[in-house]
């Protein structure tokens, strides 16, 4: 046994996130910790790591076990270099042994300037230095709080492999569900002050949680049925004063005194969107330059009214810049951004905007409006907060008392409450719990407008996106149909094709520059395809409206859903074809321009 926690209790004012929880960690354990924002996940990790003391209970660590801990907000020295920070508070012998490994890990995490001062780094870069520090130092137990935050997809894939090969024990909080599934072998859920354990990764956790909740509901149904039966007996009239009657009365009193399972409710996202016209947002040959370096060049993008776009790329490649251009918070240095008159953008930025910490949660939302339209009618700010799992006692609390994840959920609520019809989401999965993410994904499926999301969360992109825009880092933006897995498969196929073509290219002499041009059929298709896309989009909208009108007619609704799926398939194929033809047209145009210079 490496570590044990026995009957741990921790309270903050009226909240008790941990109420007598226990766990043990042994060699080979890979424990994923899940739960709602504010449930106590980070508190549990801090106590296990010794960074915080419990109010009650004990934590025992084997004195021979070395432990490394990555908190959500790591401390750092402003004047330390990157390498000095990695080995802060370590003896010189350790640095000598592990410096090569540290440099390799830092490079994998996109940090190659080892002599840069920590005070000059961004928040994401500082967090990656902290992650490199805990990975580079030899240890028996790793405790990681959201290790995938501020990592791009390639870094996450590397970290996944690195932790899979790690020989020690691991405890981590993460919202990345693919990561949970592939790295962990046990799951602990923090809920209502208790810990519930499940064998296996994310998929086994979902199945186990469903079984546990069904058993709890069955037990409560039996208790309620027995209570009703005993109540009928009590109300029948005067009872005999024998022992048996007294026992039944005592049993009835005991049943009444019992409480059922505490239901914290279910997060609901049902805020209505504004009407969106035919014209949305378009980028025409848009470009953006910072400090003389072109971040985006010649970007052409048209957002469809019900588009679902995922944006991927390495850190610093220009993903957020592209989102800023779409949001109108940045103007392009070249080209144009065109917006329709009915466009109403909801921008869920990567950083939660600064808020006066003394403002009450309810007042924060009331600034948007006292009444907000939802699919189930108009709700007051208090009712909507309740749907977003902010109970009355929290609504009257100041914002500064919320956890980081709760603040993100409140910010998400404020964005949706403005009834946008185009949602721009910059790293929406950061600091949101798994349950909130699942509900958000479900909401986005039925959201009547367009959704564009920058994300490194592969699971989220696979569920949400119908096409991927890869920001390449040299100004180019390349489109791929499908979700993240489709995009990643396309990259692998492309890489394999380039490898197999390389030997042939060495043997063959170049036959001169071959002139690109449209075939007759491609030219006609290119001229018609935008109109065909608009027609499909119009038909799709009509089918969705017909579904709402015939919601009670199951047979008709089933046929309409099948028609909707077929239309979406056609739209995906047509969009992929439009992207190919548009790219070919650009190459032909640039070739022609080159011939005239």
Extended strand count: 20
Question: What share of residues are in beta strands?
Answer: 15-25%
Sum up the overall morphology in one term.
globular
Q: What is the CA-CA span between the terminal residues?
A: 74 Å
Write structural notes for this entry.
With 597 residues, this protein is α/β, with parallel strands linked by helices. 45% of the residues lie in helices and 20% in strands. It has 18 helices and 20 strands. The protein has helices at residues 41-49, 82-86, 92-108, 123-136, 153-165, 177-183, 202-234, 243-257, 319-327, 361-366, 381-387, 392-395, 404-417, 434-446, 458-464, 484-507, 520-549, 554-596; strands spanning 3-12, 15-25, 30-34, 56-61, 67-70, 141-145, 169-173, 186-191, 194-199, 281-290, 293-302, 308-312, 334-339, 345-348, 371-374, 377-380, 422-426, 450-454, 467-471, 477-481. The strands form 5 sheets. The protein has a 6-stranded mixed beta sheet, sandwiched between helices. A hairpin with a 2-residue loop joins β1 (3-12) and β2 (15-25). α3 (92-108) crosses α4, α7 packs across α8 (243-257) and α17 runs antiparallel to α18. The longest helix has 43 residues, at 554-596. The protein is globular. The N and C termini lie far apart (74 Å). Residues 508-512 have low confidence and may be disordered.
Keywords:
single chain; 597 residues; alpha/beta; six-stranded mixed β-sheet; 18 helices; 20 strands; 20% strand
Write the layout of secondary structure elements.
Blueprint lengths: L2 E10 L2 E11 L4 E5 L6 H9 L6 E6 L5 E4 L11 H5 L5 H17 L14 H14 L4 E5 L7 H13 L3 E5 L3 H7 L2 E6 L2 E6 L2 H33 L8 H15 L23 E10 L2 E10 L5 E5 L6 H9 L6 E6 L5 E4 L12 H6 L4 E4 L2 E4 H7 L4 H4 L8 H14 L4 E5 L7 H13 L3 E5 L3 H7 L2 E5 L5 E5 L2 H24 L12 H30 L4 H43 L1
Parallel strand pairs: 3-7, 3-8, 5-6, 6-7, 12-18, 12-19, 14-17, 17-18
Antiparallel strand pairs: 1-2, 1-4, 8-9, 10-11, 10-13, 15-16, 19-20
């Amino acid at each position: 046994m490496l570590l044990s926690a026995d009957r741990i209790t921790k309270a903050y004012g009226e909240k008790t996130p941990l109420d007598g929880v226990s766990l043990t960690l042994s060699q080979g354990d890979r424990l994923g910790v899940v739960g709602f924002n504010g449930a106590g996940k980070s508190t549990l990790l801090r106590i296990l790591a010794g960074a915080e003391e419990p109010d009650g209970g004990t934590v025992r660590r084997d004195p021979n076990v070395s432990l490394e801990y990555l908190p959500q907000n790591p401390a750092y020295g402003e004047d330390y270099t990157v390498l000095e920070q990695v080995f802060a508070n370590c003896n010189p012998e350790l640095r000598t042994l592990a410096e090569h490994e540290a440099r390799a890990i830092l490079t994998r995490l996109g940090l190659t300037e080892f002599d840069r001062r920590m005070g000059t780094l961004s928040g994401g870069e500082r967090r990656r230095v902290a992650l490199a520090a805990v990975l580079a130092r030899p240890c028996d137990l790793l405790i990681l709080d959201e290790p995938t935050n501020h990592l791009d997809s390639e870094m996450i894939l590397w970290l996944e492999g690195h932790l899979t090969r790690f020989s020690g024990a691991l405890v981590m909080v993460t919202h990345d569900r693919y990561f949970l599934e592939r790295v962990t072998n046990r799951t602990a859920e923090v809920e209502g002050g208790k810990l519930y354990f499940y064998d296996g990764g994310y998929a086994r956790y979902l199945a186990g949680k469903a079984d546990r909740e069904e058993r709890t509901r069955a037990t409560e149904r039996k208790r309620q049925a027995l209570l009703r039966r005993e109540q009928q007996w009590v109300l029948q009239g005067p009872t005999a004063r024998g022992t048996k009657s007294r026992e039944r009365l005592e049993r009835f009193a005991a049943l009444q005194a019992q409480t059922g399972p505490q239901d914290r409710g279910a997060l609901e996202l049902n805020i209505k969107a504004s009407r969106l016209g035919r014209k949305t947002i378009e980028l025409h040959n848009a470009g953006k330059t910072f400090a003389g370096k072109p971040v985006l060049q010649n970007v052409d993008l048209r957002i469809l009214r019900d588009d679902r776009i995922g944006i991927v790329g390495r850190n610093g490649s220009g993903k957020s810049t592209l989102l800023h251009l779409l949001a109108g918070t940045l103007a392009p240095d070249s080209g144009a951004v065109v917006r329709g008159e009915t466009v109403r953008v909801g921008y869920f930025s990567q950083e939660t905007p600064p808020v006066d910490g003394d403002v009450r949660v309810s007042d924060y939302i009331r600034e948007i409006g006292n009444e907000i339209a939802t699919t189930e009618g108009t709700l007051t700010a208090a009712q909507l907060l309740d749907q977003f799992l902010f109970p009355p006692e929290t609504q009257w609390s100041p914002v500064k008392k919320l956890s980081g994840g709760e603040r993100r959920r409140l910010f998400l609520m404020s964005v949706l409450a403005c009834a946008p019809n185009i949602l721009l989401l910059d790293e929406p999965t950061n600091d949101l719990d798994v349950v909130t993410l699942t509900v958000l994904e479900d909401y986005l499926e039925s959201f009547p407008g367009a959704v564009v999301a920058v994300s490194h969360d592969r699971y989220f992109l696979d569920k949400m996106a119908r096409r991927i825009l890869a920001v390449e880092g040299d100004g180019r933006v390349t489109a791929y149909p499908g979700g993240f897995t489709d995009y990643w498969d396309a990259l692998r196929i492309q890489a394999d094709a380039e490898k197999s073509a390389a030997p042939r290219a060495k043997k063959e002499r170049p036959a001169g520059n071959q002139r690109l041009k449209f075939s007759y059929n491609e030219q006609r298709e290119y001229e018609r395809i935008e109109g065909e896309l608009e027609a499909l989009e119009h038909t799709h909208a009509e089918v969705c409206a017909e579904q709402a009108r015939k919601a009670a007619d199951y047979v008709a609704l089933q046929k309409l859903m099948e028609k909707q799926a077929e239309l979406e398939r056609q739209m995906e194929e047509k969009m992929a074809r439009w992207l190919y033809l548009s790219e070919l047209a650009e190459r032909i145009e640039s070739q022609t321009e080159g011939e005239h210079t």
